[in-house]
Amino acid sequence: SAAEKGGYPYFMLKEIAEQPRSVADTLLGRIDDTGRLALDEVRLSEEDLREVDKVIVIACGSSYHAGLIAKYAIEHWTRLPVEVEVASEFRYRDPIIDRSTLVVAISQSGESMDTLMAVRHAREQKARVIAICNTNGSTIPRESDAVLYTHAGPEVGVAATKTFLTQLVACYLLGLFLAQVRGTKFADEVQAIVRELAAMPDAVDDVLDTVEPVRELARSLADAKAVLFLGRHVGYPVALEGALKLKELAYMHAEAFAAGELKHGPIALIEDGLPVVVVVPSPRGRSVIHQKIVSNIQEVRARGARTIVIAEEGDEAVTPYADTVIRTPRTATLLAPLVATVPLQVFACELALARGLDVDQPRNLAKSVTVE
Ligand code: G6P
Fold first, then answer.
1. pLDDT tens for each residue of 66-106
2. CB atoms within 10 A of CB 137
3. Ligand 1 centroid to residue 103 C-alpha, Å
4. Which atom of ligand 1 is nearest to the CA of 160?
């Protein structure tokens, strides 16, 4: 009913709008007044956490994209090697795991069979498993050593939105907690990030205030044949998530590439009028990556692409090469996916609606897939 949907015509629109609150709920009670992380749910001893020598993230779909982003953050803060793998591939390749491996299983539903089987395999090899999950008491958390719940509330739309953002928050919390327990050479940076993380609900709120032009843009592209997405650094998994959303909801051919790979093949796809969405990392801190992606925007535009650029407020270097610029609030580079994903959700949702599709129940998809 309309009441269940909070006055929105679709659950997905409601769930996109709820994201500032969901992000706040995931953070709630997990950072104390002094900026220390308090993750009592991680019932592994500090000694065990100090002995971890490798992290493996396993997940499917959007949860896998959250894992790809987690890799950048956890490796940087903890200097632990992090592997990320789709759950359906994991156990069939004889992965190297033992009791000092920390496996992070990310699953909104806690019921994806692929992820569950990967968790079982990891535990048989004595790895310790932490689940990041949105559904209380579901199977994956029950079969794991510990669980970090995302507390996003039930998500009805088949395509993940608020659960994706809150999985990112949980991954950041876990990475920062590991850094706190194990010690990090970036102690000051970690302190600053904790403060920035606490401010992310407001940043997500701000980005929602500026997405109206994205709706118009999406409607203008309703008849496009395909859309390409490019990103670098954490913008690359964000691009993957943007493309997945478009496939799921608008049934449109959408591909994402690491922008550096363009020249190794995908650039051959660029033709007149092809929409190319580019997720630009912050110009601060990682200026080399920023310069490189600005060149990538130039390259595709010179070949006729219609460039849609997602860039931080104040980043004027992209403007000359962008047909459309979508602005996101300034954040720490590693936290930027929390804001950069939102316009891509709105884009896919609105484009699907313009094509007359039901965004809550896309064809052929299930909210949770309980078969392998
Ligand atoms: C299904 C859903 C996707 C989701 C994936 C993983 O395929 O349609 O939206 O990302 O499962 O689900 P999970 O519950 O394990 O996060």
1. 999 999 999 999 999 999 999 999 989 889 999 999 999 99
2. 10
3. 18
4. 9
How crowded is residue 325: how many other Cβ atoms within 10 Å of its Cβ? 17
Q: How far is the CA of 61 from the centre of ligand 1 (A)?
A: 5
Residues 6+ apart with CB under 8 A from 266: 228, 255, 257
Going by alpha carbons, the residue nearest to atom 5 of ligand 1 is: 61
Check: CB of residue 116 under 8 Å from CB of residue 89: no
pLDDT at 184: 79
Secondary structure element (H or E) that encloses residue 81, with its range? none
Residue 225: active-site member: no
Tell me, what's the pLDDT at 251? 96
Model confidence, pTM: 0.97
ipTM: 0.95
Instruction: Give the DSSP letter of residue 268.
Output: G
DSSP 278-306: EEPPPSSS-HHHHHHHHHHHHHHHHTT-E
Can you read off the two tokens belonging to residue 264? 């190794």
Query: Does the Cβ of 60 fall within 6 Å of ligand 1?
Result: yes
Q: Which two tokens stand for residue 61?
A: 């779909």
Q: What percentage of the chain exceeds 90 in pLDDT?
A: 87
CB of residue 159 inside a 6 A radius of ligand 1: yes
Tokens representing residue 333 in the block: 């580079």
Mean pLDDT, rounded, for 16-36: 95
pLDDT in tens, 215-274: 999 999 999 999 999 999 999 999 999 999 999 999 999 999 999 999 999 999 999 999
107 lines ligand 1 (CB under 6 A): yes
Q: How many alpha carbons fall within 13 Å on the CB side of residue 93? A: 8
